[in-house]
């Protein structure tokens, strides 16, 4: 039988990803205050590699200490973190799987309570490892503590930290770098007029609001060289007329492609609380499709993709080049193994230890 679309390899720059089933970044809130990934991250990410997802994307990882979403997020700003990540990428590679990392700066959504296990909401105080957050403007998210607006030296330092983190990520063995510009975090805060009230060259017009994201993509491309794929996760819409919409984001993506981005991981939302998002199976596929065709760039879809047939149809239809799965991967880290069986495809790289489980 021919290889289903979902199991076709995909080459981006110098990297060939063995199939189109990818793991979406998933914050685990499982590091200590030092931001060093732990055994949890090894087993969590390693199990997806055993399950033969083509690309395992590590969670939102702080480019510096104040870039973390919560005090228990992982980071990549020092050598201890790099060494711990290397152990993880070594294991992923041992399974023939590609390792990616999502580099992130949470901006005004930083210093938040971890996603589980905290006995408080909102901003973490110093006793819980919290910090003063930064943002394009001193406008808080929900009832979080107000951020400090970045000045131009602060913006330059963020760009430098992104480049340094990308260099460290390559040293740590990551094959793919993803820049997090979605979900209401710092780069999205600059892109959206809901969070960006600046009147300098980083605020006002869409071109100005895209200035920081463009600088970051150029800096990361410069840091990693020509053979490393650079992905960007975007929120394709704020789901409100006050924010950005898919036409704006498609324009921004075209600029980011000129700056060196290869691929768009297409999500939505997150800039402000209380905005209705009409979720449902594959609810963000239309945005991956629109950006792929308007901006002429490879994309992946993400969001409520849960079955082999649905995932294969998305890729086979040409609406997106690949799919990312988040919660379904947590329910079934071996989704790709099961999907190959369900699509009647004899996966040539099934893990030998698990061959007796192949029906
Ligand atoms: C526990 C959890 C942690 C997440 N962490 C991240 C993250 O680190 N970075 C990110 O861009 N999205 C994150 N997301 C969003 C997912 O990557 C994904 O886009 C979303 O869950 C929709 O896909 P799904 O329906 O397949 O879960 C997270 C989602 C969950 C449920």
- Total helices: the number is 11
Name every ligand kind in the structure: flavin mononucleotide
How confident overall, as mean pLDDT? 98
| CATH domain class | Alpha Beta
| CATH fold node name | TIM Barrel
CATH homology group = Aldolase class I
Give the class from helix and strand content and strand pairing.
Answer: alpha/beta
What is the first-to-last residue Cα distance? 17 Å
Proportion of residues in extended strands: 15-25%
Radius of gyration, in angstroms, nearest whole number: 19 Å
Domains counted in the coordinates: how many? 1
Order of helices and strands: EEEHEHEEEHEHHHEHEHEHEHH
Oligomer: single chain
Which residues sit in consecutive blocks of at least 5 with pLDDT less than 50?
none
List the defining traits of the structure above.
11 helices, eight-stranded parallel beta barrel, 33% helix, alpha/beta, two-stranded antiparallel sheet, binds flavin mononucleotide, TIM Barrel
Could you explain how this protein is built, in words?
By secondary structure, the protein is an alpha/beta fold. It has a single domain (22-297), classed as Aldolase class I (TIM Barrel, Alpha-Beta Barrel), CATH 3.20.20.70. Helices cover 33% and strands 15% of the residues. The chain has eleven helices and twelve strands. It has an eight-stranded parallel β-barrel, surrounded by seven helices. Strand 4 (55-62), helix 2 and strand 5 form a beta-alpha-beta unit. The longest helix has 20 residues, at 152-171. It is globular, with a radius of gyration of 19 Å. Bound molecules: flavin mononucleotide.
């Amino acid at each position: 039988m021919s290889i289903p679309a979902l199991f076709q390899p995909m080459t981006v720059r110098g990297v060939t990803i063995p199939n189109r089933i990818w793991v979406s970044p998933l914050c685990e809130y499982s590091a200590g205050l030092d931001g060093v990934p732990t055994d949890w991250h090894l087993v969590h990410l390693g199990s997806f590699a055993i399950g033969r997802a083509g690309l395992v994307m590590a969670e939102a990882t702080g480019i510096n200490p104040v870039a973390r979403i919560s005090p228990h997020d992982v980071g990549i700003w020092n050598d201890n973190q790099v060494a711990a990540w290397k152990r993880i990428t070594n294991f992923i590679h041992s399974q023939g799987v590609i390792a990616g990392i999502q580099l992130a700066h949470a901006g005004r959504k930083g210093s938040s309570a971890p996603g589980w296990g905290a006995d408080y909401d909102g901003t973490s105080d110093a006793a819980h490892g919290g910090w003063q957050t930064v943002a394009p403007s001193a406008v808080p998210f929900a009832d979080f503590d107000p951020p400090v607006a970045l000045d131009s030296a602060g913006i330059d330092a963020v760009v430098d930290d992104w480049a340094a983190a990308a260099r460290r990520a390559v040293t740590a063995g990551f094959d793919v770098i993803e820049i997090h510009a979605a979900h209401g975090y710092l780069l999205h805060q600059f892109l959206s007029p809901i969070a960006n009230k600046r009147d300098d060259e980083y605020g006002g017009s869409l071109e100005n609001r895209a200035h920081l994201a463009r600088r970051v993509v150029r800096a990361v491309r410069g840091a990693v060289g020509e053979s490393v794929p650079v992905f960007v996760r975007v929120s394709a819409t704020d789901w409100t007329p006050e924010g950005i919409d898919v036409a704006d984001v498609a324009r921004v993506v075209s600029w980011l492609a000129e700056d060196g981005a290869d691929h768009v991981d297409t999500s939505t939302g997150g800039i402000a609380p209380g905005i209705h998002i009409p979720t449902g199976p594959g609810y963000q596929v239309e945005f991956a499709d629109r950006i792929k065709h308007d901006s002429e760039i490879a994309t992946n879809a993400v969001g409520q993709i849960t079955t082999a047939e649905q995932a294969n149809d998305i890729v086979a239809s040409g609406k997106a080049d690949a799919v990312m799965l988040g919660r379904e991967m947590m329910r079934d880290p071996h989704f790709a193994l099961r999907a190959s069986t369900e699509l009647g495809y004899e996966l040539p790289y099934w893990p030998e230890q698990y061959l007796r489980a192949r029906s």
